[in-house]
Every structure is written in C-alpha cells, then in structure tokens.
Amino acid sequence: MEPTATQLDLRGEMCPYPLQQTKAAVNDLEAGGVVRVLIDCPDAVGNLTNWAGHAGHTILETLTLGPAEWSLTLQKS
Q1: Exactly one of 5, 15, 29, 60 is catalytic; which is it?
Q2: What is the spatial distance between Cα 12 and Cα 29, in angstroms, rounded to a whole number?
Q3: Which of 67, 13, 1 is nearest to 37 (CA)?
Q4: Cβ–Cβ < 8 Å for 74, 57
Q5: Per residue in 12-71, pLDDT tens?
C-alpha cells in the first residue's frame, strides 16, 4: 500500500520558494512519507530533483502536466 501523499501546489511561485517550501514539508514528514509538488517554474524541477538526490530522498515520479507545468512526487528517506 502506497503512503498517502501530502500535496503542495506551488504553481505561480518562482525559485527558490518551491525548494524552500518542499524542504519544510519534507522535514515535517516521517521517514517513508511522500509529498507531491505541483510546480510551473522550470528551474524548480531541476532544483528539487538535485536537492532530493543530495539529501538521500527518492523521486518516485516526475510528470509533465502541460507545456510549463510539472508534478514531482518524492519520498523522504
């Protein structure tokens, strides 16, 4: 059974705000917790992916929702 994901809708926000808000949300999760982040800042996709990898978290899914809109789902290590 997959854990229920917390969702952050950060569309309309520019970097570094999506990264800061995602870090805060992940800090509030238990190990194994999942957060889904909706973003429309192209730089945020790379920033979130890089940060998650360096922090030891797992990117479960990256979806392109539109020409400039993405969903990133990550799991806390």
Answers
A1: 15
A2: 24
A3: 13
A4: yes
A5: 999 999 999 999 999 999 999 999 999 999 999 999 999 999 999 999 999 999 999 999
d(C-alpha 66, C-alpha 20), whole Å: 23
15 catalytic residue (yes or no): yes
Are the CB atoms for 4 and 34 separated by under 8 Å? yes
Quote the pLDDT of residue 71: 97
Per-residue pLDDT tens over the stretch 1-13: 456 789 999 999 9
* CATH (domain of 48): 3.30.110.40
Crossing angle of helices 42-55/17-27, nearest 10°? 40
State the total domains in the chain.
Answer: 1
